[in-house]
Amino acid sequence: MRHAVLHAPAFSTLRLDMAEGEAIHAQPGSMQAMTPGFHIEVKAGLHMGGKKGMLGGMRSLFGGESFFTVIYRAKRNDQHIMLAPDQMGEIRAIEITPESGLKLARGAFLACTPELSFDLYNAGMQGMLATRGLFFLKTVGTGTLFLSSYGGVIEQTLAEGERFVLDNRNIVAFTDTMSFESVVLTKSLKDSFFSGEGFVVRFTGPGKVIYQTRARPSLGMIRGFLQTIT
Fold it and tell me: What is the pLDDT along the chain (230 residues), one digit of tens a residue?
């Protein structure tokens, strides 16, 4: 399988050229165009640590992604498919190994190769304050992961003990072994409220942080709360 990111950075589209038998797992609604030689299958959830069916779908949903996953498998050689997220932004291909696993913030997943699977990481209140979700998706195994962002993508590599602070709305993914904590940016809650900067996330290296250059528009208090718990 060969891949290319076209029309970057603002209107990125992912092109995958595939041979017979090769497959890609993608978010529902992300297909823009394709050649006719694909078999399409819809299943509940991502490959979630061996969990299938309704349970896999619910775990995927809690991780901030769709209940369903679409599998596109080439029935013959020389097929290609175009994928894109629903928001303007960048697509980044990342090779994942057990030593370079990532935790994904909600909405970051676009597609992956079939050999890559995911687990659900319960971050509790720390996760809610960090990325407005109780759970992260954690990569398992080896494969190619395609992330999407709102705006451009920036990768920040931290040395041992080095710290880096991000607004919680801009996080896309980070090294799964990296420690993080939610903190208030200013000394007082009043200053934090009026500055527009509530909780921020402080990462401590070693590891890599991937973040987006724009924050997704606010959903409002009620919809934001519902998104956090589902």
Answer: 999 999 998 899 999 999 999 999 999 999 999 999 999 999 876 654 544 544 444 444 444 446 688 999 999 999 999 999 988 999 999 999 999 999 998 889 999 999 999 888 877 655 555 455 557 889 999 999 999 999 999 999 999 999 999 988 899 999 999 998 887 766 665 555 555 556 788 999 999 999 999 987 655 444 444 444 33
Q: How many CB atoms neighbour CB 190 within 10 A?
A: 9
Structure tokens at 122: 């319960």
Rounded Cα–Cα distance for residues 96 and 159 (Å): 20
Can you give the residue range of the structural domain that contains 129?
A: 2-229
Dihedral angle, C-alpha 159, 144, 66, 212, nearest 10 °: 40
The number of domains in the chain is 1
pTM of the model: 0.82
CATH number of the structural domain spanning residue 125: 3.60.160.10
Beta-sheet strand order (sheet of 153-158): 117-122, 135-140, 102-104, 171-175, 207-212, 153-158
